[in-house]
Amino acid sequence: MSKEFRPLMMRANRLLGAALVEHNLVKIENLEAANERLIELSSGEQPRQSTILGILAYDMKVLREEDVLHHVVEVEGIGLMDLHNYDVSEEVKKATDPGMCWATWTVPFDHEEDFWFVASAYYLSPAVRSHWEKQLGGHILWYATTLEMIAEYLEKLAQAATAAAGASAATAT
Question: Which of these, 25, 39, 88, 105, is most buried using a 10 Å CB contact count?
Fold first, then answer.
């Protein structure tokens, strides 16, 4: 995780963990163990691993990501989003900062007039919601999605940027 986004990532994870405990989705002792693991992982350059939700659900297996999604849909009243086949405009892609998205496990995927459409695996983290509200301005329509969906989206975005840079370099020579 880049030093620029590390504080945001740590705050997003800390407040997500607190929300998971508050909503009785995970026990405090499991969260404490996951936080220790997160600190170890966050010192590396693998943003895909810097997630308290991923550690709790997939490493420690004390939480199911589906339970978090169910809670967000039922209690918070937001919809689910499948980004696999969603055609994201170039405007939104260009406005997307991958480091910020990895730090918050959130991606903007559409923009219509004053409304931004945003998918997040970290909706329960108040730090994530307030960060994106400040970042995007306007109104945000939130959607829940999985860690895997966010990761795939960001990896495709990175591949497209690399391909575009390669094409630009080839035409310039």
Answer: 105
